[in-house]
């Protein structure tokens, strides 16, 4: 049976090494789940963090409270990052609050399952691509004039970009676009010593799962993640060391790559 806890207080036991001391990070989709866990880990590693989120004020407030309970510095700004002006506002807010941008983590996500391609509306297709693919590009474009040598861009895609998903056709496609843009940006920015990498999680237990699959399968918690070799879903806190690794200034010869955090479900590319 899947674990159904979303409690990122598991990061209380996270052992930091100061890898991101003095850095400023933007982490989107950070009011819960993976983004929240990454924001907390980055703060524990010494970064000052700005979290971007859509409209979950309570979740954003919880992320800030956890970070501050560890003595970290964090700010939050809400807004739909599928709109370019909100990405520009997030970067401007970060510069006003902390004076720099060193790390950009594009983690915002949206998915809505449909059992038939005929049920995917124009509006759903556009929204999915706006949140997953467009927002990533808009935020990178807004941040790029302010990124210096040694900056890091990290994009959260999905295992579905590699193996597909019969009920998440638009979502799989949007993540595929994110993978392609990550590799292209990496080629463009490598001579400027700006690394662009990503993580493609498999089944990770977050509020997004019950929010999007609960209507189709009220018992989603019973079997979610059982199809991977580990036989269970991952928890957000289990991914954060990979995000820290990709943000670490000492990780200077890796770009255009995706790490597959999926409980042993081998991906060939």
Automatic annotation (TrEMBL):
InterPro entries linked to this entry: NAD(P)-bd_dom_sf (IPR036291), SDR_fam (IPR002347)
Molecular function (Gene Ontology), one example: oxidoreductase activity, acting on CH-OH group of donors
TM ranges: none
Pfam (any one): adh_short_C2
Domain of life according to the entry: Bacteria
Keywords recorded for this protein, A-Z: Oxidoreductase
One of the protein's GO biological processes: bile acid metabolic process
Oxidoreductase keyword on record: yes
Family: Belongs to the short-chain dehydrogenases/reductases (SDR) family.
PANTHER family tied to this protein: NADPH-DEPENDENT ALDEHYDE REDUCTASE 1, CHLOROPLASTIC, NADPH-DEPENDENT ALDEHYDE REDUCTASE-LIKE PROTEIN, CHLOROPLASTIC-RELATED
Name this protein carries in UniProt: NAD(P)-dependent oxidoreductase
Source organism: Planococcus plakortidis
């Amino acid at each position: 049976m899947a674990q159904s806890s979303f409690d990122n207080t598991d990061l209380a036991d996270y052992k930091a090494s100061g890898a991101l001391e003095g850095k400023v990070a933007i982490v989107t989709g950070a009011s819960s789940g993976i983004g929240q866990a990454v924001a907390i880990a980055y703060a524990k590693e010494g970064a000052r963090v700005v979290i971007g989120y859509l409209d979950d004020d309570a979740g954003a407030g919880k992320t800030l409270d956890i970070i501050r309970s560890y003595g970290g510095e964090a700010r939050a700004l809400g807004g739909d990052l599928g709109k370019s002006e909100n990405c520009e506002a997030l970067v401007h807010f970060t510069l006003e609050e902390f004076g720099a941008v060193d790390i950009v983590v594009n983690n915002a996500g949206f998915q809505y399952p449909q059992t038939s391609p005929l049920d995917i509306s124009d509006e759903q297709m556009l929204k999915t691509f706006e949140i997953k693919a467009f927002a990533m590009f808009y935020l990178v474009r807004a941040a790029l004039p302010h990124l210096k040598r040694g900056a890091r861009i990290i994009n959260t895609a999905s295992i579905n970009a590699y193996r597909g998903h019969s009920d998440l056709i638009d979502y799989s496609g949007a993540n595929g676009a994110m993978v392609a843009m990550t590799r292209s940006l990496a080629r463009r920015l490598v001579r400027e010593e700006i690394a662009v990498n990503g993580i493609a999680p498999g089944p990770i237990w977050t509020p997004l799962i019950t929010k999007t699959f609960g209507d189709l399968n009220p018992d989603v918690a019973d079997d979610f993640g059982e199809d991977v070799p580990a036989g269970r879903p991952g928890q957000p806190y289990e991914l954060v060391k990979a995000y820290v690794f990709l943000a670490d200034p000492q990780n200077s010869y890796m770009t255009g790559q995706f790490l597959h955090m999926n409980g042993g479900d081998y991906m060939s590319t």
